[in-house]
Automatic annotation (TrEMBL):
Protein's name in the database: Flagellar basal-body rod protein FlgF
Domain Flagellar basal-body/hook protein C-terminal: 203-247
Start and end residues of each stretch annotated as Disordered: 175-195
Coiled coil: none
Domain called Flagellar basal body rod protein N-terminal: residue spans: 5-35
Amino acid sequence: MDRMLYTAMSGAKNAMDQQSVVTNNLSNVTTTGFRAQLQAARSVPVQGDALLATRTSVVTTTPGSDFSQGPVEFTGRALDVAMQGGAWMAVLADDGTETYTKRGDLQLDSDGVLLNVGRPVMGDGGPIAVPQGAQLSIGADGTVSAIPAGEGPEALVEVGRIKLVTPDEQVLTRGDDGLFRGPLNEEGAPGALPGDENARLVSGALEGSNVSAVDAMVSMIDVARRYDMQMKMLSTADENAQRANSILSIQG
């Protein structure tokens, strides 16, 4: 009975945790450059006052992300970029650390700073700023060029170069803000990865989420059914306990 209760309880908790991961993936099925989260579970013995050989609990984790490429859609917008292959774009996070993303729908703020979802895009020497009202173009190597307002093509000037990196994706960790960070440095903070001169992007295009809506919906239904099954096991265990108590009362 004890084993049955802990098995069903752990299974139900794992199903709830997995449902939250699946729900997050499904809610980002249209988010540009999103990478699906993975979910895993492992059994561990219960520690402390409840320690018994029959009691085992489940610990759920999100060990990583699915780094497969999402679909690329051509938009024709000058500030839309899609990273090719294993290339990632460097952006400045709110905490001041350098982070990395596959999202490429860039914007300009009122000061002419190039932004990625409100965060400055990093160049070789820091955030990239462009002249107000300039016509922009982005090259395959990340070079940002501008034609000042009222000028012709002959006035084209280079104003910066987007920092692109090609990391070992298995060392990247996802933050709560959805951005990815490199390995920790000696100070215990995420370190900045070196730029890759050979990394390339496609201008006028966006890479979509790599989450399959169909697969996510199937997973959601499967997890919901497994949760219901575990709850029925708990209900059955309770009924068995009540019947056993009744039999013992009669015998007593």
